[in-house]
Amino acid sequence: xxxxxxxxxxxxxxxxxxxxxxxxxxxxxxxxxxxxxxxxxxxxxxxxxxxxxxxxxxxxxxxxxxxxxxxxxxxxxxxxxxxxxxx
Amino acid sequence: xxxxxxxxxxxxxxxxxxxxxxxxxxxxxxxxxxxxxxxxxxxxxxxxxxxxxxxxxxxxxxxxxxxxxxxxxxxxxxxxxxxxxxx
Amino acid sequence: xxxxxxxxxxxxxxxxxxxxxxxxxxxxxxxxxxxxxxxxxxxxxxxxxxxxxxxxxxxxxxxxxxxxxxxxxxxxxxxxxxxxxxxxxxxxxxxxxxxxxxxxxxxxxxxxxxxxxxxxxxxxxxxxxxxxxxxxxxxxxxxxxxxxxxxxxxxxxxxxxxxxxxxxxxxxxxxxxxxxxxxxxxxxxxxxxxxxxxxxxxxxxxxxxxxxxxxxxxxxxxxxxxxxxxxxxxxxxxxxxxxxxxxxxxxxxxxxxxxxxxxxxxxxxxxxxxxxxxxxxxxxxxxxxxxxxxxxxxxxxxxxxxxxxxxxxxxxxxxxxxxxxxxxxxxxxxxxxxxxxxxxxxxxxxxxxxxxxxxxxxxxxxxxxxxxxxxxxxxxxxxxxxxxxx
Amino acid sequence: xxxxxxxxxxxxxxxxxxxxxxxxxxxxxxxxxxxxxxxxxxxxxxxxxxxxxxxxxxxxxxxxxxxxxxxxxxxxxxxxxxxxxxxxxxxxxxxxxxxxxxxxxxxxxxxxxxxxxxxxxxxxxxxxxxxxxxxxxxxxxxxxxxxxxxxxxxxxxxxxxxxxxxxxxxxxxxxxxxxxxxxxxxxxxxxxxxxxxxxxxxxxxxxxxxxxxxxxxxxxxxxxxxxxxxxxxxxxxxxxxxxxxxxxxxxxxxxxxxxxxxxxxxxxxxxxxxxxxxxxxxxxxxxxxxxxxxxxxxxxxxxxxxxxxxxxxxxxxxxxxxxxxxxxxxxxxxxxxxxxxxxxxxxxxxxxxxxxxxxxxxxxxxxxxxxxxxxxxxxxxxxxxxxxxx
Amino acid sequence: xxxxxxxxxxxxxxxxxxxxxxxxxxxxxxxxxxxxxxxxxxxxxxxxxxxxxxxxxxxxxxxxxxxxxxxxxxxxxxxxxxxxxxxxxxxxxxxxxxxxxxxxxxxxxxxxxxxxxxxxxxxxxxxxxxxxxxxxxxxxxxxxxxxxxxxxxxxxxxxxxxxxxxxxxxxxxxxxxxxx
Amino acid sequence: xxxxxxxxxxxxxxxxxxxxxxxxxxxxxxxxxxxxxxxxxxxxxxxxxxxxxxxxxxxxxxxxxxxxxxxxxxxxxxxxxxxxxxxxxxxxxxxxxxxxxxxxxxxxxxxxxxxxxxxxxxxxxxxxxxxxxxxxxxxxxxxxxxxxxxxxxxxxxxxxxxxxxxxxxxxxxxxxxxxx
Amino acid sequence: xxxxxxxxxxxxxxxxxxxxxxxxxxxxxxxxxxxxxxxxxxxxxxxxxxxxxxxxxxxxxxxxxxxxxxxxxxxxxxxxxxxxxxxxxxxxxxxxxxxxxxxxxxxxxxxxxxxxxxxxxxxxxxxxxxxxxxxxxxxxxxxxxxxxxxxxxxxxxxxxxxxxxxxxxxxxxxxxxxxxxxxxxxxxxxxxxxxxxxxxxxxxxxxxxxxxxxxxxxxxxxxxxxxxxxxxxxxxxxxxxxxxxxxxxxxxxxxxxxxxxxxxxxxxxxxxxxxxxxxxxxxxxxxxxxxxxxxxxxx
Amino acid sequence: xxxxxxxxxxxxxxxxxxxxxxxxxxxxxxxxxxxxxxxxxxxxxxxxxxxxxxxxxxxxxxxxxxxxxxxxxxxxxxxxxxxxxxxxxxxxxxxxxxxxxxxxxxxxxxxxxxxxxxxxxxxxxxxxxxxxxxxxxxxxxxxxxxxxxxxxxxxxxxxxxxxxxxxxxxxxxxxxxxxxxxxxxxxxxxxxxxxxxxxxxxxxxxxxxxxxxxxxxxxxxxxxxxxxxxxxxxxxxxxxxxxxxxxxxxxxxxxxxxxxxxxxxxxxxxxxxxxxxxxxxxxxxxxxxxxxxxxxxxx
Lengths: 87, 87, 390, 390, 180, 180, 299, 299
Ligand SMILES: Cc1ncc(C[n+]2csc(CCOP(=O)(O)OP(=O)(O)O)c2C)c(N)n1
Ligand SMILES: Cc1ncc(C[n+]2csc(CCOP(=O)(O)OP(=O)(O)O)c2C)c(N)n1
Ligand code: SF4
Ligand code: SF4
Ligand code: SF4
Ligand code: SF4
Ligand code: SF4
Ligand code: SF4
Ligand SMILES: [Mg+2]
Ligand SMILES: [Mg+2]
Known about the structure:
- Chain A has helices spanning 31-35, 68-72, and strands spanning 7-9, 17-22, 41-47, 53-57, 78-82.
- Chain A is mainly beta and 87 residues long.
- In chain C, the strands form 4 sheets. In chain C, strands 2, 3, 4, 5, 6, 7, 8 and 16 form an 8-stranded mixed sheet that branches.
- Chain C is an alpha/beta fold and 390 residues long.
- Chain C has helices at residues 17-28, 42-55, 65-77, 88-93, 95-104, 131-136, 152-169, 179-183, 250-265, 268-271, 291-305, 323-330, 346-354, 373-385; strands spanning 11-16, 32-35, 58-61, 82-86, 108-116, 122-126, 145-147, 172-178, 184-190, 216-218, 221-222, 234-236, 274-277, 284-288, 310-315, 317-319, 335-339, 359-363.
- Chain C is globular.
- In chain C, strand 10 (216-218) and strand 11 (221-222) form a beta hairpin.
- Chain G folds into 2 domains: 10-258, 3-Layer(aba) Sandwich (Rossmann fold); 261-299.
- Chain G contains 11 helices and 8 strands.
- The longest helix of chain G is centred in the first third of the chain and has 16 residues, at 27-42.
- Chain G is globular.
- The N and C termini of chain G lie far apart (57 Å).
- Classes of the chains: A mainly beta (87), C alpha/beta (390), E alpha/beta (180), G alpha/beta (299).
- Strand 12 of chain C pairs parallel with strand 2 of chain G, so a sheet runs across the interface.
- Bound molecules: thiamine diphosphate (2 copies), iron/sulfur cluster (6 copies) and magnesium ion (MG) (2 copies).
- Residues 56, 98-100, 127, 129-131, 138 of chain H line the site of one magnesium ion.
């Protein structure tokens, strides 16, 4: 199985959680951005290889790791995690 | 079309109606006999060509020509008619 | 009889085979389609759905292909010219009712835009692998008519022929396209209505008392009665007598099924359409149909450039198969080359008809795309060298 | 592997072909039937429904033949040996899923007790007119195995072969009976379980990480994985690669469909069963199958009495067709006589294989009863007189 | 080879009698036998028939061509099937339901009031078919008494074996008595 | 014979541009032309392409073998289809979405910022495909301006004809200006 | 006794095919009788009525009625009828078939035609089994019933047909038994005069198979059972109209809705609204030759 | 930004087949996401869960889940699943398919499986059209919707799926939209733990076809629409759960019945009752090799 190497996570020491991305899977629907309860996310200026703008953590410190983004994403391109140490 | 020549009707001068038979169609289910409201009918001792006992008018004078027998018969082998002159 | 101008989109168009087939049907007088979407045939019904409210008629999308394949027959008995349209998996579902149409002598057209199989296979890619199914897919003995166009233009033209043959012989006609033809856009010239010949349904003029629905009247074919006119006719898929009544015994079976087959077999000359080129004096003849015939033609032209005496015989009518034609041909040539977009289906018929008289080279291809012309060319070359009575 | 004694009704019985076929299936290890009643096949499922609670397994009467023909495949993937049973109209409805079984390499058995067709035809009377349908009825290219028993005993014996072949080659097997065989009661000897050879499913022993569901392992055949064991395998009717994933292009089509056909074509010798008698030195050979082979045998015996050198070649395996066998035969005899309870189906294959080497006489019959022996005898006589290289 | 037509109307147990005869020959004697039913949906509820062929050789042709023996349990059946009888031939009939008529002289006839016997001696007319079989066995000797009885035993439901055996014996005895 | 690949991503109107070119050649010039679409459900929402063949003779082989001209409206499409280009050959590309790279020297390239032109001059980026067609017409001269315009007119919905004609003209003019 | 004329319904059936194939006491004949009587009373011209059947004992009805009649394939009477009606909207199209045909194999056609409110009168003779093939379990067979393919008794819930018919949108739903000849005749009359998808379930004995296997006696005793064990409840909640083996059940007219547009009415009114001119859309009236004759077909 | 592990659901789908084929904003991905999340939370061993799909965009789900999975034929996921479940009763069998697949061509299988209470979890992604083939009208398409085969708008009543599911006897019926991810996940969890015929309708945008043709904007705007135009009403009367084009609709858990025997439970209990000894009937447990191994197969 091909292991994606493009996973990235936000890491803000203050944040309750972090949000992770596998941008090459993203198709730019914007669900994650719209439905993040604390508005952590915004669109990148860049395109991924498929030509879509993907989400980036514009306010990583706000992230509560609730994984709403992860639940909404139709493409399994994003997910949130709670920061253990923060709780 | 083959015209059946075996039609027979009861004819009782006193009766309100008459009951008619096309016995070769009969399969002897007994519906007509059972459900004649005034119990005009009974089974013949004879068999028709198919080997069934068919109904006969045992009490033709009672017949009211209501055609219940006709409505029940699954084989279109019997029917009742009102006697015009009697009404 | 001429075509009803309402359905004829006279003019020059740039449309694909699916659209052209739809226009052909409309020009032929088809006013009812029962269908169910399936790639790569869907465009035919989509166009019909868009066109028919303006022409006067109905498109009914049914719940499945089974319903489609019988609703269309209901419509025919109700007075319509009708077709249904599908591809492989849907065609498989229609098999029972192709038999019903044969048995009840219901004139109608089944369109199959072939894609790669078996099963779901290659939904969007071409094949010609339902050709034997078109002949043998329903249970029981029967003959069938199957036509195969090789261009958008012919999707139009031959569709009219399909409807005409269906009415002429009171039989379902299989219109066997393929994904490539269905989805290839080309110029299509649609003539004026008055120059389109239509074979209209023959309704009996007899009185009801004299009429027998399944009594052969002309060329072994019974006349239809119009619904609602007091004929009180009966239609059944059971073996029936001339009255149309169930009559289930060997004798009636022999009479009925024999007639159903003969009414096609005896009129092969009228039904079989073959496009020939350079047959006289040819060493090799390429026999093909549908999209493959275009690649075959290219290969033929290349072979001629290489000095080979090669001709073509393109089957516009695939069924009934041109046995006699092929048999005659086999006595004149070294080799018959049969490229098909399948594992070798019609080539079996060629082999059967050839009876060892000449060599037969099958050029199979499982589909997904078309042949490379070089492959057919190689077969032609091989056929030109060897061959003749082995 | 030996048969599971639970399903084996060891003893001597007086039962008809339908019942015997059911017992054959039980002896073969069949423990799941999805079916739908239809004359003249219904007795098979009726017996199964009565027997299976005691044997351990399931009969599920589905809502139609379509559901039956796919439920049985679900059961196979769930671990069962399974069959479905039908006749003409139902067989037509199963066509889509015969293709699915081919494509997904699902071992299973389809029983067709043939009756007169086309359409509803002659529901209670015999025919052999679905023989070509068994080969060609589903869309796309494929090869199929079809067996045809000619007695109650053989309904039992050959059914075991059918299941064994289906497992051996991971392919659906068509068990082509006819109404006459299905409804004729005769003596049937059912042996002890330990003397019944069973070919059991080959489940992979590989680790999930090493396993590819459609990678040919032996004789072009991939191994199955058991459900629920972590193989996480995928099954699709789309053209797929060795992982079982959809892979829709010419290359995979070629590889997959080619292999599916070759896994049968290359093992014809193992699959084709022919019963011969008096072939050596014969002028005429009668080639037949199913019920017709019994009438043919009677005609043969009569012909021998009349001094004709006649042999028989009875096809227990009708598909794949014995091309090579027939071709060889055609070089040794004057005439091959092919009586069938249809308009002439398998005779086409004979003609194809014969390639003009000898005469072929078709003795068709549209069904409703069997041939008169005299008719076949007349053909034998004719064949003995004329024939050989025409 | 002996070709036998067993006929009557639906509900008389025609098929079972045929099964008994066929099975007796095939399993309990050293013979071949095959049984074919006449099917046909148009036949619902009317006459019913079966064909049994008994032979010393393998049976190839599955249908009866001309019957050597006709077992008739209804007049309609008799009328329908007597023309197919060979001469010489045999008719075994239910004597209160069938009046043999129009037969050529070399056809032997054996009658038994099987329905009445069944009704009077066993309390149920449904055993008439096995009475007929017992009678048939006695008068035709096509299969042995022993084989026929084994066959009856193997074919009828457990709780009816006793009565069926009695029925057979009654028919058999009647045959022995009247046609010995 | 000229083989043309038109490519981009879904929603750019790739098929319509192909239709315009093909129809112009087939109906409004004395040529043969055929158009084939690349189908495939895996392609949902990703790249999209069409093939047009223009020829003086009847077209037999339905697919493009090697393209003479590649119209590329996305980088992905360019990457996918540039390898099939003949040399010499031509690339017509949307210059803000595509950067031609790795081409052999005998391939001519013509770029136009069609999306921006459409957006800025017509208010809607969806006209980019017709801008591309106008530009293509100007730089390749495969079909005449007149034929191409007739074709556009016949293919776009009535209420968009005006804008589409403008789009064509903009593209055409851009071509004439920059590559005349 | 005097010799007299014909059975009053003679002209409605094919006399030359009598006697019909059904067994003694089979309820199908009585159901047909009720239909023909209703038709006779309706004053409709029978030439404008077509009967479409599937395959089964009930399916043979099409072969006996002296009307344009279609004996189609198993389960497919409804879609055939849909096509027939579509092409010839003036024809009253009556689907007459069995429970197996309409509700087992044909279930999807039934629910989809109901959903679309196809203008069909559907009569289902429910004899609780597949009779023609020898009495197998059907989608209406009550639990515990013995049938040929459920030899130890069925253990599946059967459909409650009036409920299903109502659920899919039938505008008329009634259930009667063949004992209730007058009511059945009336229901048939009502359905004959109803536009849209109407449904009548006719409970009917199959003495040869179902009643025999389930030890329910003769057809006649079953008729008496119907008489004694049914409760007429017009407008009953169809959730309550289930049928248990040997148990009492509810009969009556359950649904009778007015004003719901049929498929073709919905199409015509929708298109009339959508398209402005007659040029774009002419009200659809059918495809029989006569429409063409009036129109532009140069015939 | 730090590099990290995998998507928490990675093991549930075939990573080597990602990205999947669905369009940007297609709701099928989110529906699958909810299912996999529920499965993850359930603690079930995914090896004991099988996914069966028909053909369609939704049907492709079977190809993406990393479980034993079956991409069957169009409309036939349910009967395949019935066979699978019958042979392997320990497997949790989940049917995941589209509205066209399950409710148009597959309608009969749906109602019959519901009637028999087959132990299947059926998830229908309802995007109101046949997406895979280019967006044609389906049995759930609301009136007036534009589709490829109803280019001027549909004029037929669509099915109200929760109502139909309840009518045929489903023991669990819920409807959510892909906007309602948490609730949807919960419903999936409940259905995963439910025995018998359970049904979840997932309303989902098909932005490429349905929303585009009907000028409903992007997938995102459709998600917002779902948010604003749905009313949660658990236990709602399913007669009221109809869906109009562009109108508000009801969502929630409508049916959740306990104690109804599944097909196999009914069979086992009926046969256990009918047959006296183990010799006559052994409780049926399936046909997977392991049962044989324990038993008498001399393997
Ligand atoms: C495709 C197909 N499958 C099966 C059959 C066999 N068949 C004929 S009638 C019938 C069932 C009839 O049952 P029902 O509709 O209830 O009618 P009934 O005979 O009870 O009146 C079946 C299964 C068939 N003719 N065609
Ligand atoms: C027998 C058959 N008929 C038709 C098709 C074509 N087909 C494939 S998917 C589909 C409809 C899919 O619609 P739906 O189930 O709603 O799934 P969606 O694509 O909307 O998710 C159709 C008609 C087919 N594959 N097989
Ligand atoms: S929800 Fe997923 S696909 Fe959509 S924008 Fe966010 S990461 Fe991309
Ligand atoms: S995990 Fe929650 S808070 Fe963090 S980005 Fe995702 S949705 Fe927003
Ligand atoms: S109802 Fe008819 S068939 Fe029955 S007994 Fe009376 S006349 Fe005979
Ligand atoms: S007409 Fe009425 S009263 Fe007279 S016999 Fe018939 S049912 Fe009895
Ligand atoms: S079998 Fe049953 S339904 Fe068929 S005719 Fe006889 S009684 Fe009627
Ligand atoms: S076409 Fe529609 S359903 Fe299919 S993947 Fe695209 S958005 Fe999803
Ligand atoms: Mg029934
Ligand atoms: Mg959908």
